[in-house]
Design goal:
Radius of gyration: 16 Å
Bound molecules: 5-O-phosphono-beta-D-ribofuranosylamine
Helix content: 25-40%
Strand content: 15-25%
Low-confidence stretches: none
């Protein structure tokens, strides 16, 4: 399936997907295009290194409708079927999300529904929980609220900081995000209301 990726920053999840792809572990995934909404994003370098076509659509001085129209034009032109949000730091409108219902996945660095939003690591540390992790979920109209597809957990140690926590969780992110993408592109994910069933065959 043709996959379009949207990213805003470092791009380590994008890189993890490309790595698995190059190893032959994602046979049903074709990374067709990357859209970046910040021209300074490091993820651009990764796209160049792997010869992934990309577009920079600066979102800073653009309203959401304008921005999303440009994104849609590109994805339609490229026949994109699945959208991956790999550290994409802008909320998408309900119009956009509903046009790609159950076709957009996101990775979030907490065990949702706990700690949604942009400051998951900070909120986790503050709360004193002993376990956290990451979640791959479908994107719906809410913030980090769509059906949960896969999670991986880690234990918090004494003296854990936002930095150490994010590093630990990132390792798990890089494992489950490519895995979910392959499952989705091979039609192994079934949605039953808010619940997900993954077929094993
Ligand atoms: C990750 O922590 C991801 O969970 C969150 O944004 C971060 C993106 O990191 N959505 P990277 O750009 O993939 O390195």
């Amino acid at each position: 399936m043709k996959v379009g990726v949207m990213a805003s920053g470092r791009g380590s999840n994008f890189q993890a997907i490309l790595k698995e792809l190059n190893k032959g572990n994602l046979p049903d995934v074709e990374i067709s295009h990357l859209i970046v909404n910040k021209k300074s994003a490091e993820v651009i370098k990764i796209a160049k290194e792997h010869n992934v076509p990309y577009s920079i659509i600066e979102s800073k001085n653009k309203n959401r409708t304008e921005f999303e129209k440009e994104v849609k034009n590109i994805f339609e032109e490229k026949h994109i079927e699945i959208i991956v949000l790999a550290g994409f730091m802008r909320i998408l409108s309900s119009n956009f999300v509903n046009e790609y219902k159950y076709k957009i996945i996101n990775i979030h660095p907490s065990l949702l529904p706990a700690f949604p939003g942009a400051h998951a690591h900070r909120d986790v540390i503050k709360s004193g929980v002993k376990k956290s992790g990451c979640t791959v979920h479908f994107v719906d109209e809410g913030v980090d609220s769509g059906p949960i597809i896969m999670q991986a957990s880690i234990n918090l140690e004494k003296g854990e900081t936002e930095d150490s926590l994010s590093k630990k969780i990132l390792i798990k992110e890089h494992q489950i995000f490519p895995k979910v993408l392959q499952l989705l592109c091979s039609n192994k994910i079934q949605i039953i209301g808010q619940n997900i069933k993954i077929s094993s065959d």
